[in-house]
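// run 5 | inverse folding | seed 20
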């Protein structure tokens, strides 16, 4: 489950959730500035290393990545034809010249760019997965409130995150109840399957509305609407020396990534790897 929290005493567990948000921002900025698969592989490997140091079972990571295989394949193919390249070294044509008004070829530059796009995509998703695995949802919401999110939205997010497992369980019960009444939904035809699954919509909506009304009554009974912004919290967030040290490392990484990925340096661009490939293969 995406919202599963794994308790522990590793360094990443002990960090303030706001530092973990900075970690997410660091990864996003680095992969946004870099477009070379070799450099992005280093980022992806660093994320895996953080997970291993935090003693996260690698089975959770592999199952998460395995579930993304269809999306990764589609994303890779889509990026092959998304970005035009200057003087591409074409390997083969999907639509050769003379067949249509345009040509559609696959070049070395396109393959390298697509690999980088896939690594960028996986790095961001795995970073989100890391933060959620190693941080209680309560702390994530509290850190967002401390960074300026209105408390009303924070409470709504906390309730929403906490309701996801309940919603999954409710859907399972509704599906089992419908199956006991001879309901079938396992069709090879996707349209028939979608039509069959539509029968779950009404009971799911009714169950969700009933629970939402119960939650609204419960939080109003506890005086939620009275002085929301003046509330105190059961757990107060405070930075420690470890937090400041890790924050300094993340800031240094951001500065270094900005320098390496700057237009003046032109080091971490996809042309770096494509140049290496062309030098080895010598494609005309």
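// decoded
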């Amino acid at each position: 489950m995406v919202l599963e929290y794994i308790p522990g005493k590793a360094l990443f567990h002990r960090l303030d959730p706001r530092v973990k948000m900075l970690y997410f921002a660091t990864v996003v900025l680095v992969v946004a500035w870099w477009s070379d698969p070799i450099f992005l592989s280093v980022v992806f490997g660093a994320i895996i290393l953080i997970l291993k140091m935090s003693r996260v079972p690698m089975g959770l990571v592999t199952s998460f990545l395995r579930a993304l295989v269809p999306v990764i394949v589609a994303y890779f193919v889509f990026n092959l034809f998304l970005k035009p390249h200057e003087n591409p070294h074409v390997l083969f044509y999907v639509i050769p010249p003379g067949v249509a008004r345009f040509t559609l070829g696959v070049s070395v530059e396109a393959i390298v760019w697509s690999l980088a796009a896939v690594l960028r995509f996986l790095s961001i998703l795995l970073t989100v997965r890391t933060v959620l695995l190693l941080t209680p949802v309560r702390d994530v919401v509290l850190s967002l409130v401390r960074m300026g999110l209105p408390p009303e939205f924070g409470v709504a997010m906390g309730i929403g995150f906490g309701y996801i497992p309940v919603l999954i369980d409710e859907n399972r019960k509704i599906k089992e109840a419908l199956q006991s009444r001879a309901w079938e939904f396992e069709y090879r035809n996707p349209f028939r399957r979608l039509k069959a699954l539509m029968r779950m919509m009404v009971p799911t909506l009714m169950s969700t509305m009933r629970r939402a009304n119960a939650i609204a009554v419960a939080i109003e009974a506890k005086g939620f609407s009275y002085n929301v912004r003046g509330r105190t919290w059961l757990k107060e967030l405070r930075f420690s020396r470890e937090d400041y040290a890790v924050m300094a490392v993340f800031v240094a990484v951001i500065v270094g990534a900005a320098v390496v990925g700057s237009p003046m340096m032109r080091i971490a661009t996809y042309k770096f790897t494509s140049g290496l490939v062309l030098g080895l293969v010598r494609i005309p």
